[in-house]
Structure formats: structure tokens, C-alpha cells
Write a structure and sequence with these properties.
alpha+beta, Alpha-Beta Plaits, Tumour Suppressor Smad4, 8-stranded mixed beta sheet, 7 helices, 19 strands
């Protein structure tokens, strides 16, 4: 495909939830077959609503559609098709989906831009069997479809001055759903996180919502330990909470005061109270650099 000008697209990211545990329980061959069945069903749902699969990476599908409505319908179709699959040796297969509608650039069969980044961020927020999107996407759909979504949060997104309003798409009936009451105004919470590393102190609050940590000199907090990755982890504010997200090779180790240290491997955790963070190895075993944190 030749280079095209920027145009509005609906970008979807969908992946198999808990695929690592799936491989551990079923073994490589059977788990791979289960993941492929999910990928095939997500692909067919994309084609049904005239979308295009841009790429598949492991257990993840990236797809694009010309309209927010088509993307919405396809995400629901993906969930329904995967939900219809029988359990594999007692394991129920599930996927999580995030999508966003906005300006993007298509070039060489790939798609680029802020819309792609936002869609990926929505997928990162989704849980098993959940579809997450943005207010901008909901507003681009017909009124009838808007009624099948509920607002669940507002969060900071890198590169955006204001918090992004996040919605969940309700694709199946459930008595457990609790809709957000329009008659109750949210009480603003002033959230504050203080982190210390050596003689450096940084604060995250409503005016500063992201902190990067790693060996890269461009990181907000530079870690010298060679077991740390260049872009090791980040801490981001999500409304009144602060979330530590590991993106490293060797893992991020967290200890809350009075509790046992634990490892994050491409996972995230909500920081609370006080504690410290180590990079690439357990502080309890090897000592080394730590970042201290305090919430509140």
C-alpha cells in the first residue's frame, strides 16, 4: 500500500487473556492450538464487519475499520465468537479488547499515530472478556449503540493534556453490571505520589502524571544497575491511583512496608502506602539500587 494521508480510522487491539498461564497449564502444543482458534475467530469477526487485520503478534490481533460503528460491532462479535468456544481441559478461553477512533496514518500496510497508541492503552486497561474504549469513540457512534456502553473512569494518557474518559462496552447481558449514576457527581481526589532515588525526589500529582525509570539517560529517574533495562518501568497516575508498570527484561521487584517482596514481569500493580522498588533483581537477595515511594 502506498503512503496515504491521515484519515479517521477505528483501531482495535485484541489479545488472549492469560495466555502465559494457558501455556503453563496446557503445554505448548495444546495452548498454541487454543490461541490460534481465538485468533481465527477474531479474524473472522474483523472480516464480517469489513475491517482489515493489520498484524498478529503472538496472541494479539491489531485491526482497523473505517468507522467507529464497524469497530464496535466487530469487538462485540470477537467476544461472542470466543465466548462460544468450549473450555480446553477446564480452561475457559477469553480475550480482552481496546479500541479507539480518530486520525491515523496508513503506510506500507501498517497504521501509525496517536489513535494507535490510545487504542493500545485501552487494551492494556481491559480485563478478560472486557471491551474498553474512549468517550471520543462512543461519541462517533449512533445513539442506539451508545446505550450499550457505560463510563467507568477517567485517566491520564501520555501526550494528552486532559484525562481521557474511559468507557466499557456492554456486549452481553449480566445482572452484575452496575451503571454509573448520572445524579452523583464525583468528588475530586487530590492524589500525590512521592518517589526518592538517591538525592532526587519526584512528585506525581494532577499536574504531573507520568514517571519513567530505567538506564536510559532520558528517563525521569536513571537507574545505574546493569540488570535494569533501558526503559525498565513507568509509573502513571490513573485518576486517584498510581500504577507501576513493568516493561523490562528482568522484572521489577516491589516491597510494601511490612509485606514480602514480589516480582512484576510485564505486569502492573497499584502502589499504596510506603515501600521500595528494585530493578532486575530482588533487593532482599542482592541489595543494590532502590526507589522509595510514598502515596498520600
Amino acid at each position: 500500500m502506498s503512503k496515504k494521508a491521515e484519515r479517521n480510522l477505528c483501531v482495535i487491539f485484541a489479545d488472549v487473556s492469560g495466555s502465559t498461564r494457558l501455556y503453563e497449564k496446557l503445554g505448548d502444543k495444546e495452548a498454541l492450538h487454543a490461541v490460534e482458534r481465538c485468533i481465527n475467530r477474531m479474524t473472522r469477526a474483523t472480516e464480517q464487519y469489513h475491517g482489515r487485520v493489520v498484524k498478529t503478534i503472538g496472541d494479539e490481533v491489531m485491526a482497523v475499520f473505517d468507522s467507529a460503528e464497524a469497530g464496535f460491532q466487530a469487538t462485540c462479535g470477537m467476544q461472542q465468537r470466543v465466548d462460544d468456544l468450549p473450555p480446553v481441559r477446564g480452561v475457559k478461553l477469553a480475550i480482552r479488547i481496546g479500541f479507539h477512533y480518530g486520525p491515523a496514518i496508513e503506510e506500507s500496510n501498517d497504521v501509525f499515530g496517536d489513535t494507535v497508541n490510545t487504542a493500545a492503552r485501552m487494551a492494556g486497561l481491559a480485563k478478560a472478556s472486557q471491551i474498553i474504549t474512549t468517550a471520543d469513540t462512543i461519541n462517533a457512534m449512533p445513539q442506539l449503540l451508545r446505550q450499550s456502553a457505560r463510563e467507568i473512569d477517567a485517566l491520564s494518557v501520555k501526550g494528552k493534556a486532559e484525562d481521557v474518559r474511559v468507557f466499557e462496552v456492554i456486549w452481553q447481558e449480566s445482572d452484575e453490571l452496575t451503571m454509573k449514576s448520572p445524579g452523583i457527581a464525583a468528588v475530586p481526589v487530590v492524589a500525590r505520589l512521592t518517589v526518592r532515588h538517591g538525592g532526587v525526589e519526584r512528585v506525581l500529582d494532577p499536574h504531573n502524571s507520568l514517571l519513567t525509570l530505567g538506564r536510559d539517560a532520558a528517563s525521569d529517574i536513571v537507574i545505574a544497575d546493569k540488570r535494569a533495562s533501558r526503559s525498565h518501568a513507568r509509573i502513571e497516575r490513573r485518576r486517584d491511583k498510581f500504577v507501576l508498570i513493568d516493561q523490562s527484561t528482568n522484572g521489577t521487584y516491589v516491597m510494601f512496608i511490612g509485606e514480602a517482596e514480589f516480582a512484576l514481569k510485564r505486569e502492573e500493580v497499584i502502589l499504596r502506602g510506603r515501600g521500595h522498588i528494585s530493578f532486575g533483581h530482588a533487593h532482599a537477595d542482592n541489595g543494590g539500587e532502590i526507589v522509595e515511594f510514598r502515596v498520600g
